[in-house]
Amino acid sequence: MGVVTPGFQGRARSGNPRLPPGQYLAEDFPVLSAGPTPRVRTETWEFAVTTEKGDKHTWSWAELMALPSEKPTVDIHCVTQWSKLDTRWRGVAVDTLVGGLDTEADYVMVHAYGGYTTNLPLADLLDGQAWIAYEYGGKPLTPEHGGPARLLVPHLYFWKSAKWVRGLELKTRDEPGFWENAGYHDYGDPWREQRYQGD
């Protein structure tokens, strides 16, 4: 992946208690990505969960649409310092896809169309904390915002909510993903300003 879309800076800060330290409130929805926007057709879209033993479980788009969905309304926080409150999504809880699997994994490597990866503790994707989201604001998720489907993990910086998600690789050992290899924090808690390694 090559060019990184420029971030945003220089906006006024707010005293809003829902904003983590160092964040400002964005009224629009900035588009940031680490390369060209993949155009993924739902006819060929596939999502896979692979266990640490190599067992692979896959869903087509039609199979994902047939699963029970949820409509979370959440605040999101980008490491480039913008936050957006009360964003409305629809998607399938990660619990629905992973909850019944036989696994001893503690970590996940998230894979996306286009080659992007990011790492997370498995616990941060369970218990109603994360979704495979395919609608935003009551409409299908656009490619610029990660459509047809992206991971949504609102309690961590938004680079962990991988756009164009295509799979979760369950792992017993944590390994850095794309931005984490470039110096960003392995966990990325916005309330502790974990932007970079060492924060």
Distance separating the two termini:
25 Å
Radius of gyration: 16 Å
Task: Report the β-strand fraction as a percent range.
Answer: 25-35%
Largest sheet: 6 strands, mixed
Order of helices and strands: EEEHEEHEEEEEEH
Helix fraction bin: under 10%
Number of helices: 3
Structural class: mainly beta
- Rough shape? globular
Structural write-up:
This protein is mainly beta. Helix content is 7%, strand content 29%. The chain is built from three helices and eleven strands; from the N terminus they run E-E-E-H-E-E-H-E-E-E-E-E-E-H. Strands 1, 4, 5, 8, 9 and 10 form a six-stranded mixed beta sheet that branches. A five-stranded mixed beta sheet has the order 3-2-11-6-7. The longest helix has 5 residues, at 61-65. It is globular, with a radius of gyration of 16 Å.
